Every structure is written in structure tokens, then in C-alpha cells.
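Give me the fold.
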Amino acid sequence: MNKACVIGNPEKDLDCDGLAIDPWRLCTVKQVEELKSLIKVLPICSTGIMIAVTLNQHAFPVLQATTMDRHFIGNQKLPAGSYGVFTILALTIWVAVYDRLLVPLLAKFTNRPQGLSNKQRMGIGIVISCIATATAGAVENKRRATALRQGLADHPRDVVDMSANWLIPQYCLVGLGEAFSAVGQIDFFYSQFPKTMTSIAVALFSLGMAVGNLVASLIIGIVDDVTRRGGKVSWVSDNLNKGHYDYYYWLLSLLSLVNFFYYLLCSWAFGSEDREEYDDGEAMEEVEMHPSVGSPIRHVGV
């Protein structure tokens, strides 16, 4: 890529003002370095797709909650769709506790002002997301067994004798995983890009979440198609009591585990996240051409 900013023939490459005649063939150092920064983080960015898949399992827990006893405190009954608030609470509380209490303590051991490194936080987030889906599978396995024991196999809308509060741990784990992973990803992208690319840092995280939604739909479609073959009941059947949403959750947990090892590989290949700037971080290369043959186009801010 460095060859893209090297002047081979000044007469053919530059105009009378010293600017590139064809910007697609001759680039500035700034453009090349920005592209290299973007390509370098793409593998680690791809590891966030599976986390987005686990974070976007909103509909299934709501279906579970509708078939469970939703009394929370006394006679207060929570709506099935309101249990997602525990994800937001866990995320908010953890971010505050981590920033105000844990960072000063961890900084003494890690010699990092932010406590854990961004890559460590992303790795922890992947592990927690794996635990969250495994927990969700265990809860659904218990709920389904209770429903079948009560003879509700053909009555998916009837309430089973099991508290919906059992869903709270998986919601909290999802929020905790998001707190580690999402914040770690955004901080990581910011740390690896020059200041002119901060908008791309946020866009990369949003892109990972969007792709995660598409992958989640793809996984559901594949699971439904494969598990219904031979006249069997699909794992993701409309009838929760006949389906096997517990198997589906455990499949997601297995995929998250594979994603964790993939993340370790990408993290190892990336190397240190302490980026050495090719400029001072503020003085970005601007628009000045070097006149000599074989020299790169450099734009040095003053």
C-alpha cells in the first residue's frame, strides 16, 4: 500500500501545481495510513458480530415470560416485555461501578489508567455473552420440563408453575457482557484511528451490530429448516413447550465459545494495541507534494 503514495514519474503523476493528476493512482500518506488502520482492525471488528447475535435475542425471552409467573414483589405483576429493563440496569450500574470504583484499583496492578485494556474488556464481554446464552438455555430447559410435567405440551399459552424471575440472571449477564464488549470495542476503535476517522470508529461498531442482526436471522432460519426435517417439531416452534429453545440457546453458546477462540487468534495477530502514530495525532498530513522522484506524497500539518 505504501507504493500508492510514491511518485514514480513527476511529469506523468503530477500537474503544474504539484497535485496528483489521478487521485486513484497516487494517494497521500494520510490516505494510505487511514486505509491501513481500517484494514488492521477489521478482523477484531468481526468478532463483535456474534456478540450482537446474543444481544439481539429479545423476542424469545418475552415469549418465555408470557408463560411464567410474573409476580415480582407481592401482587405486583411485571409485563412480559419489561424484563429487558434488567439488561439496561445491569449495563448502567456496571459502567458506573467499573469507572468509579474498579478502574482506580485495577490501574495499580495493570499500570493502565483505564484499568483493563480494551482487548481484555472485549474478551471478557465475549465470555460473559457465552455464559448468558448457556444460562438462558438452562432456564428454558427447566421451564419446558415444568410445562411438560404439568401436561401443558399442547397449551403453549398457559402459565407454568415457575417464576419469571428466573429470567433475570440471563438479562443481567447480557447487560454485563454488553458493558464490557460494546464500550471496549468503541474505545478500541477510537484508540487505533487518527482523529479524522472518529466517525468511522462509531460506524464500525454500528455495522457490527447490524450484521449481527442479519446473522441472527440467518441462524434462526437454518435452525428452523434443519430441525423440522423428517416431520419433527422445530427447535424454534411457535409452541415453546414442544420446541427446544434450550437447544437453540446452547447452540448460540457454542458459537460464542468458537467466537472467543477466534477472538484470541485475531487479538494475537493484531499485536499490541498501543498504536504508534505516524504523526503527532493532531497534525495530520495535508496537501503538499514532494517534488523528487520516488518520494511519497506527504502533507504535514504545521
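The chain has nine helices and no strands.
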